[in-house]
Design brief:
Layout: H1 3-15, H2 18-25, H3 29-43, E1 48-51, E2 54-57, H4 59-86, E3 92-97, H5 99-104, H6 106-116, E4 121-126, H7 129-137, E5 143-147, E6 155-169, H8 182-185, E7 190-193, H9 199-207, E8 215-218, H10 221-229, E9 234-238, H11 239-242, E10 249-253, E11 259-266, H12 274-291
Parallel strand pairs: 3-4, 3-5, 7-8, 7-9
Antiparallel strand pairs: 1-2, 5-11, 6-9, 6-10, 6-11
Helix pairs in contact: 1-2, 1-3, 1-4, 2-3, 6-12
């Protein structure tokens, strides 16, 4: 039995006329008649006496009317609960991100989200690009920030092209005073996080023929800055990582410019929770306002 059959039956019982019930439900009188006939056929008995003045419930119709209205009321409760969930009055959101996103973007994004949806429970998990992807695949995270390329079968939204810079102690200056070329970094030691020696960081170092034996590793971005400041080597860090780091260092672009593209990664749209969809809107609005547009790289 369809839900509309129940609605039609309840409204006809209330209005005592097919035409009036049809107007209330915004359908044709024939649709009401068809639904009532179908319900009577499925139940096996008549629900109304028809006469020139309208209709009147049969004794069988009177017996089932409270049951039908209870069904309709239960559905209303279901829809109300669904509306609350879709309205994000409750639920949780599990976010994964790497360090520079956690530091520079997430505080503002989460504060904006909490202002609109204060009852949503939010947790943040920090890891590298690959770890974030893995946690989403395992279902441990709802949404994550990583970097292209992403080969897994997940929903990927490119967000921001983040330029990679050479970081050097104060006093360092490239030959052309504008950008670092291969001669500027020949025989220099580079300090980076070991987990970063892939993707775009590796591409930048390879472009300048920096051998693996010229690399030293540190535990995080702040430690890299401290080691560069002490003259232990040069660093290679993206713009976002440098925005809230301080030290007596300078930065220069590479003559062959290199970027990493930060992306938002989620499950398929059909699997996304309402809170995930709402957070995606917050992210895109925040970055569009901050940078003018999202990255168009895929």
């Amino acid at each position: 039995m369809s839900n509309f059959m129940y609605q039609a039956f309840s409204e006809v019982a209330k209005q005592k006329a097919f035409i009036t019930a049809a107007k209330v439900l915004n359908v044709t009188p024939s649709a009401i008649s068809h639904s009532i006939n179908g319900l009577e056929k499925e139940l096996g008995f008549a629900l109304f006496f028809r006469n020139r003045n309208g209709v009147q419930l049969t004794s069988a119709g009177e017996k089932i009317l409270p049951i039908v209205r209870e069904i309709l009321n239960t559905e209303d409760k279901l829809l109300e609960e669904a509306a609350r969930i879709n309205g994000l009055d409750q639920g949780r959101l599990r976010i994964g991100a790497f360090s520079s996103v956690c530091i520079n973007w997430l505080p503002d994004m989460i504060n904006t989200f909490k202002q609109e949806y204060p009852e949503i429970e939010i947790s943040v998990w920090q890891g590298d690009f690959n770890e974030v992807i893995q946690q989403i695949k395992l279902g441990e995270l709802d949404i994550g920030f990583s970097a292209l390329p992403i080969k897994e079968n997940l929903e990927v939204l490119p967000l921001y092209r983040d330029e990679i810079y050479c970081v050097a102690p104060e006093g360092f200056e490239p030959r052309d005073k504008k950008a670092v070329v291969a001669a500027d970094v020949a025989d220099k030691t580079f300090i980076l996080q070991e987990i970063d020696y892939d993707r775009n960081t590796k591409a930048a170092l390879d472009a300048y023929d920096v051998p693996a034996n010229s690399l030293q590793y540190s535990i995080d971005d702040a430690s890299i800055i401290a080691m560069v400041e002490s003259g232990l080597g040069l660093g290679i860090l993206p713009d976002l990582a440098l925005q809230k780091l301080s030290g007596n260092v300078v930065r220069y672009p590479f003559s062959k410019r290199h970027f990493r593209t930060i992306a938002l990664v989620t499950h398929s749209k059909a699997q996304q929770t309402p809170s995930t969809r709402a957070f995606i809107e917050i992210v895109t609005a925040y970055l569009t306002e901050r940078y003018g547009k999202l990255s168009d790289q895929v």
